[in-house]
Design goal:
8-stranded mixed beta sheet, 2 domains, globular, 8-stranded parallel beta sheet, Rossmann fold, 19 strands, 12 helices, Dihydrodipicolinate Reductase, domain 2, alpha/beta
Length: 384
């Protein structure tokens, strides 16, 4: 077991405070305690009073209510220091019903959004921004860039999602990288789902020694479950040349030698990653598995390797979400200094933790990455 902790932490090499990442325990109201990335165990229920603020809540605007937006509304509305000031949408969808029932104001982010009588329009996007302290932009690819001028005009800080260009925001964030910069940044972009999964795996591998190269092949879901009509039902489509994921990762981890390829498959339950990593020194299979099992937001499971297993892990989640990157134990192989593995990524929820990490940082509520991540993981366990 000593080999699991013998390697120098990736965060330590970047100067991040990660000293108690694997020893700190949170106890939630349901009577369970967890460390990030670990299984829950039964324990005595203790309330953490330091999580409760007596100051007025920070007003969070959600722009876009798709796959990411509706999950963030669920969580943010339950965090004591935050309140959802409103949701701005460009079209009306059934996803708005819970918002209306809970009294969250609905705004129009475009001039041509027609509201039915049962959904009152609270105003335009500019009206929402005036009543907010932070924006979570959860719009589809490219729309965040179109709305950037509105955010800058309102002088409001914003968190973008990974569909936007890495150059759009002041800081790019993923899995702890960029956390300190995010505290004071006017805008932060959270990396995409596949890039997030790859970085978590790369960080885990870096605990085994110096990672010389990573080569990964991504088999991507054609679409999200709620957009299945936009998929390619009878085709596997290749993207030629290097995919954007490796390029994205090198923006925030420039000395990591990683190259990625990608294709689209006619599935909508998750992405599949096939990864080959070369380390500086040989390791054993036991040490590799042990290390991967100890990393926050990485989950090693026994299974057949089916992407459907991603939806069976958290049966208590109302959407069957799994925000961890999932690695199949039988798929981990070690040949000398090379590690081969297969991983699954639930594209609908894997970036939720990173988005909340950044929100805690930008709001000033948490200034250390380990504390922000613990708070995030607790909120996800309770409300996602």
């Amino acid at each position: 077991m000593a080999g699991c902790y013998g390697c120098r932490s990736f965060y330590a090499t970047r100067g991040e405070d990660w000293s108690d990442s694997f020893s700190y325990t949170l106890t939630v109201s349901a009577g369970y305690a967890t460390q990030p990335g670990s299984k829950f165990r039964r324990t005595r229920s203790i309330m953490r009073t330091d999580l409760i603020s007596s100051s007025p809540s920070l007003r969070i605007a959600l722009v876009g209510l798709g796959t990411i937006g509706k999950r963030l509304v669920d969580i943010v509305s339950h965090i004591p220091e935050f309140s959802v000031s409103g949701v701005a949408v460009r079209s009306i969808s059934p996803a708005l019903s819970p918002m209306v029932e809970s009294g969250i104001p609905i705004y129009s982010s475009t001039n041509d959004c027609i509201f039915p009588a049962e959904i009152p329009c609270a105003g335009k996007l500019s009206d929402l921004l005036e009543k907010s302290d932070f924006v979570l932009d959860c719009t589809s690819r490219g729309n965040g860039a179109k709305l950037q001028q509105w955010y800058e005009r309102a002088n409001i800080r914003v968190i973008y999602q990974g569909g936007e260009s890495s150059s759009l925001a002041s800081v790019n964030y993923c899995s702890g990288i960029g956390f300190k910069e995010a505290i004071s940044a006017p805008s932060v972009r959270v990396m995409s789902c596949n890039s997030t999964g790859l970085i978590r795996i790369a960080q885990a591998l870096s605990r085994l020694g110096t990672v010389e190269t990573i080569r990964a092949v991504l088999t991507r879901s054609a679409t999200d479950p709620d957009k299945y009509m936009k998929g390619q039902p009878n085709a596997i489509i290749s993207t030629f040349g290097e995919s954007h994921h490796g390029q994205d990762i090198r923006v925030i981890w420039p000395n990591l030698n990683i190259i990625t390829l990608a294709s689209y498959a006619p599935v909508n339950c998750g992405h599949l990653v096939t990864l080959f990593a070369k380390l500086s020194e040989p390791i054993s299979l036991d040490v590799a598995i042990c290390t991967l099992e100890k990393i926050p937001r990485v989950r090693v499971i026994d299974g057949s390797g089916s992407l459907l297993e991603l939806r069976r892990i958290n049966k208590s989640s109302k959407r069957r979400d799994c925000s961890d990157v999932v690695i199949w134990r039988k798929g981990i192989h070690v040949i000398g200094n090379e590690v081969l593995l297969s991983a699954g990524i639930h594209m609908e929820s894997i970036v939720i933790p990173e988005t909340l990490d950044v929100l805690f940082a930008m709001s000033g509520l948490e200034k250390k990455i380990d504390q922000a991540r613990h708070r995030t993981d607790l909120a996800i366990y309770n409300y996602l």
